[in-house]
Amino acid sequence: MLVPALSNIKFNNIAKTKLTARTPLTFKGEADSFVKAPKAKEENEFIVWANKKNIAEVIKKSLQNPENKIGKGFYNCAYKIEGNDNFIFRVSNFSKQNLDFTSIEIKDTEDKELKVNIGQQVAEITLKSGDKNLPAMRIEVLKKQTGKSLGVPPPEVFNDDYGNLKTGELAYDDISKKEQYFKSLELLSKMPLEAYEKLIDTIQKAGERGLLLDYYNSNNILLDKKNQSINVIDMDNRLGKPDWGNVLYALTNIVYFNSVYNMTFNPKEETVKASELTVEIINKFIQAMQNKHVKFNKTNYTFQFQNFLESIPAKIFCKSFSPEGEWAKFEQLGIA
Fold first, then answer.
1. pLDDT tens across 124-173, in order?
2. 3-class SS shares of the chain: helix, strand, coil, % to 5
């Protein structure tokens, strides 16, 4: 997931807006009148809401209030939307232009055939740059997803291009990140089997629409304690079928285990606890795979799943310290 340095973005004076009746929707600061856009066959919930608001003020307040920042990733930052709890804004970390609110365009990008919530884009807002030499700024409107991030993002999120820790970031094995990691493992390990099965259903339905899980960052999986569900966000629009090895790689946040708990200086009890919780997560996910009749791809799996197979929890679950033994275990379970 997500968080640009929006201190770099300046907001010009906001003019009063007018919604013109054309597609895509366009807000202009030329008059006080308000005209509804033509009704589509299936209305876009966000655009219907935006029609009734001064969207320029909404954008400004949402992006300028630091309390609205809800997550960060490699490329983007996500923000709560002032006055709307059903959607969020996503903005590029590299947006640095002054913003001109005299013309705001909103485009309906919702896939009406996608019947699950994966935090997908439903609209796109374009704001002209106040600097004619800079491109327009694009704001994605996404469905809000419930839950807290599963794990600690990979080191690349916290490090610069030279592998050095970015200013203001905490070390990868900092105690606060360890605490977050353990809380996530404990919550996920206690999730009911039905939550894992629903996760598989969601990923399959998204895959039918050409969307695959971005498995590299475990923060693309959210844990909803209240509803006892495992949710996903930031799925990629690309060809292919769901790769269940990659899903398990992300679900176990095995990159953090391999980076921190394979180190000899960590207390033994910490490593044992992390391993036990991870094995329980593996066990539940594989039960769900059996119930949903999906399998690992033995002939074409990724480098990330190879890292999973080399991890202590995977070897403990399979009761084997060789790749051949692990695959034999998966075949015995009917998932390879």
1. 999 887 677 778 889 999 999 999 988 787 777 777 777 787 777 778 77
2. 40, 20, 40
